[in-house]
Amino acid sequence: MTDVQPHPMALDTLDFPEPNKPLPETSLAALWTHSLIQCKRLLTRWSRDTTTMIQAVLYPALTLLMFRVVLGDSISMATGQPAVYGQVPLIALIGAMFGSIVSAVGLKQERISGLLSRFWTMPTHRAAGLVGRMMAEAVRVLVTTIVIVAMGFALGFRFNEGILAAIGLILLPIVFGLGFAVMITFLATIAGDAPLVELVSILCTLLMFFNSGFVPVAAYPPWLQPVVAAQPMSCAVDAMKALALGGPTLTPILQTLAWSLGLVVIFLIPAIKGYRRASTSG
Q1: What's the pLDDT score for residue 212?
Q2: DSSP state for residue 219 in the 8-state scheme
Q3: Structure pTM?
């Protein structure tokens, strides 16, 4: 056996700074600092990945434009309201959901490649990986929503209820997206080689076609109307539509918060355990 000796020149060129402000691994300061680092890492990686950028930013805006080209004014003439006020919220929510699915597929790849395990061996806060991922999801949904609203403005969408309602409209997809992201993160960490995350996209496609964003709930068959009205996307679409166009806002907002917080309550602890298991067993 031949011992491999480090090259003296290589050691001379390595100049790692000594840590001067080490943070206790379990402190809140470490959680905040390390979560920001993880958030920045994910945002940087997503910004350099063409598929993620197309799926998360470009595709939703193009979908909104295709709705306008294909459907024209047919829905507006049938309902008496501009269809763009339902389509902008609908596409914003779709962007939040499908962007989380793409992110979850990336999480599975990080587990398989061993990247999560390498992070786990570093002196960082144990929750920083998951918290940083949720922070990155919030930024992604915010950017996607702003792009979609900008496209909506070009198609006639306007904020008719003032600046506070506009801020609420922008923030509501983030709340909705975080609830969905917690659920999809849990599925990504327990799926192993099973295509659970990919199967969720089928469910999302069904939700996309059966909600109040395309057409009013009254346009669906009577037996289907209660299901369409109660599903989470319809609640969020109705809330965002009311924030932009006017009308009852409290009930759909509370329903959206109930759905989103309910997903967090149900899946947060399993997601934490799944993330820990994926990090230690990769």
Answers
A1: 85
A2: G
A3: 0.83
